[in-house]
Amino acid sequence: MIGRLKGILVHKQPPWLVIDVHGVGYELEAPMSTFYDLPDIGREVALFTHYAQKEDSVSLYGFLREGERRLFRDVQKVSGIGAKIALAVLSGVPVEEFARLVQVGDVTALTRIPGIGKKTAERMVVELRDRAADLAGIGATLGGNGGVPADAQSEATIALQQLGYKPAEAARMARDAVAAGDDAAAIIRKALKSALR
After folding, report:
1. What is the rounded distance in angstroms from the CA atom of residue 97 to the CA atom of residue 85?
2. For residue 181, how many C-alpha atoms fall within 13 Å in the half-sphere facing its CB?
3. What residue spans carry the region label Domain II (predicted)?
């Protein structure tokens, strides 16, 4: 199994791209989240990869960030979801936002992703809720934004989970405590103070 592929980008037309690695062309399927940040054709690129083999086919998927590959794999663990829907998830919403939607159980927002119906969204919430904090942490750390979660509220939610609060409870506490201009520390302090009442 290939874990990371580094070479020259020779073709890109969503959802397909081709990378030349020492004269061997690798065709990969990638989500739009990867396509948005790809370099120009002829430039070097390094991708995290996922290799999938079925009875009658072999597929290679490419991702610029480890968090994207992790989400792609985790989403496919939900019953009834395959690679096509997993790519649609990544093309429709950033990793951190998907993790937040799952944590708060926002089925309506999840159904706005192409290919996701209400029952599938409900299964995602149930089956991925425990891993959502992990996904948010990986996406924030490796997602290319310098290791900082998308916003102070998300950072506070993750911190509250690390203190032992369940994902949905931590998200609710942070949401109830946040005020304009608050940093994560202020949100955490207010959330903990409120929890003691």
Report:
1. 17
2. 0
3. 65-142
Q: Is 7 helix (H, G, I), strand (E, B) or coil?
A: strand
For residue range 161-171, what is the model confidence (pLDDT) as tens digits? 767 777 778 88
Estimate the crossing angle of helix 167-177 against helix 118-142, to 10 degrees.
Answer: 70
pLDDT digits 0-9 by tens, 102-135 = 988 899 999 988 888 999 999 999 888 877 767 6
- Alpha helices (runs of H) in the chain, residue ranges in sequence order: 32-35, 66-75, 83-92, 95-104, 107-110, 118-142, 152-162, 167-177, 184-195
3-state secondary structure of 64: coil
Contact 109, 101 (CB under 8 A): yes
Which residues, listed in sequence order, are joined to residue 75 by a DSSP beta bridge?
A: none
Using 70 as the pLDDT threshold, list the residues of the chain that sit under it: 1-2, 133, 135-150, 162
Q: Which two tokens stand for residue 63?
A: 């991702």
Domains of the chain from N-terminus onward: 4-64 (2.40.50.140), 67-195 (1.10.150.20)
Q: Of 95, 93, 96, 72, whose CA–CA distance to 84 is shortest?
A: 72
